[in-house]
Amino acid sequence: MDKKSDDMPYMRSPLLAGMRVAGEGLGVRSFLLYSCFMKISLDWLSDFVTWTLKDPAAIANRITLGSAEVEEVETQGALLDHCCVGNILTVEKHPNADRLSVCTVETDQGVKTVVCGGTNVRAGMLVAFAHVGATVMWHGGEMMTLEPVKIRGVSSEGMICAAEELDLADMFPPKPEDGERPIIDFTGKKLKTGTSLREALGLTDVILHINNTAITTRPDLFSHIGFARECVALGLAKWKRQLPDMSPPRFADAAAPKITTQDPTLVPRYHAATLHIDPSGETPDWMKKRLAAVGVRSITLPIDITNYVMFELGAPLHAFDASHIHGASTFRASKADEVVTTLDGIKRTLPKDTIVMEDEQGLFDLCGIMGDQRSSCTEKTTEILLHAPVYDPIRIRRSIQTLNHRTDAATIYEKGMPAIAASLGFARALRLFVELCPNASVTSGQLQWGTDGSAPTIPVSLEHIQSRIGVDIAEKDVTRILKDLEFDVRKGPKKGNLTVTPPLHRLRDIEGEHDVIEEVGRIFGFDNVPEVMPEAMLRIPQRDNRIHSLRDQLKADRFVEIVPLSFVSAQLLKKAGLDPSEAVEVENPLGDETALLQTSTLPHLLAHAQQNLLLAGDTLRSFQWSHVFHKDEPERLELGLLHTSRVQTDLLHDPFLQLKEELLHAIGAANEAIDIEAAKDVPAIAHPGRAAVIRHGNDIVGYLFEIHPMIRANFDMVGRAAAAVLDLTTLFALKPASKPVEALPAYPSISYDVTLTRTHQKHIAHLLQEARRASELLEDVVIHDLYAGKPLKEGEYNATLRFTYRSAEKTLTDDEAKAAHAKVMKSIKG
Length: 830
Fold this sequence. Notes:
Helices cover 25% and strands 27% of the residues. The chain is built from 21 helices and 41 strands. Strand 19 (339-341) and strand 20 form a beta hairpin. Mean pLDDT is 88; it is low at 1-35.
């Protein structure tokens, strides 16, 4: 329900359903079937069933649990309990007010004196009288409870009510001759003084407001007959022996209307015939009451009949003025930009493929949605073409959306109206025309095509029903439930098997065993299924937490994680020194920036650095882990790291060396061990003289390198930058290394710092390996400091090594430590 309709008082009226117009033939906007709820009258249902459960609240609760959610139970006349039909005995002018009268009123509780401001009040008038204690809407607005009061010095016991004060303005619209503040006038109606106002007005119905959003797949429920079936199946009622006559009257021995269709899929099922009626007929009160209960205003008898059948049987019909149809008629799909003037007076430009009906003079029906003005029935119509079509629901749905216009009929059609509903509705409407319209007769033979369909035969296993629902339902109970739903049920070829055939009105939603099981479950009552905790072994799944250890350690080392999409552009790949021809193309990209799948994590890292380096300060550390893709290669998981600097750094704080240390630190946290060796072949993105391969045993699992100066320039990087890529798919395929637990040292260590002058042509890694093998007392040797500059020669640098000695058995003396250190120094200088 849209916001605008929610503000309308008839939508929340406790007395009457709001009056409106419904149906394809009229096309005036309504608020029933296509809002969030529709209205079902319990009195109307009583035409079909005898209630075994009397309490409306209990009925609503059972329907909610088994069929559709009931949003509200509306009791007509709920606020009229203290109101009756009163007879005004005398009317005198108020002594202290010119516009007020003092009246004596005969009621069911004796004669009451009342001060009244009604402009049409007079002696002998039958009125709506509200006793003290009644709740009324003061001037149609705020609710108030009546109390004994004095008005300008005169006591008043109750109220002579206007229609708006009892929310009855739709039933009793004001007349201009009655003045500005008219009261309800029952004079001339056969009403007895003192009669309960609810009884006098026939407001005895109970209306269920059904939320229709959950029954989209149940077009059979968009009708009273559909809910009558549900109430019988749910055990709320039993079918009456005498049901309304649904048989068609006798057709004339004459030709059928000349109507064809260009495409059978537009109208797969169709009925039509012509009638002659006397236009003087009026809608009977019982039909007006039923229509009012579901919120429909009575218009004319022919229109009321078509609306009545739609709400009763879920079959929208259309009554055309046959005298305005010229020649043979045809159903077809519209062409783009055709125009039709609908009943609301609006010229509508149609999209292509909307279902329309035309005769020799052009279009005269926007099928399934709204009729055309030219063919509409009026108060003078005597010749009627009545038809009951079943339209293609997909085309109706598209037309509703494109035209942004919807009616009750269109809502039923778009759900996929059962063909049997059209057949029953057509026969029922013809019967009502002949019975209710003066001198009415069918003047043609019946035109029809298509069939009501055939139901599939569905094998159902009792074991499956019990296992799916979770309770042992006896076979006799399953059979009873399905038969109550009008299914044909027979014994299957094996014990415990049934052969089920759904009724024709359920062809849209019953297709297989699972649908039948759902029917049994909802009627049995899911609230009757015992709650049982499931039994299952709880095993903690094996997880590889190495990626999380890597991420946590990198974040601890002040790295920022980025999470871009896995798409890249060819321009970004070229900018990063990568070949776009190796990338996998996206078949339906959103744009150039998402045209390729990434072949490396580095392009996004470089683009991120270009945008954020100035904001990060002197140094930016970032990483990304994501899947990468290459043509003719399986996708793999890759970790990319980038360490960039905006300032000139010394040798110790060089991004390449720092990234190497940070990578080793993170790998160690993931219980992995890697070796870093100088690379011979390097990718185009790498500086040819500052690149290394990352090995795990004999397998290459990644690269560590400084970004090539040309690539740095492409991304506006003024300082040096280093990157690393790690093939996590290959690395994680290897068994994680175990991390032994070592006891804390029991004895102190002795350290010596030694500075050695080195050149870049000699790798220091070999020197460190030799040192570690020279003495068992050497616990560790690390590079403590690096320096390059004056007074050293170009190409030279000083490396300060820190040697740490410790014995696991005793405290080392200075002499023992010096002897071990001398042995180590001899090995690396020899």
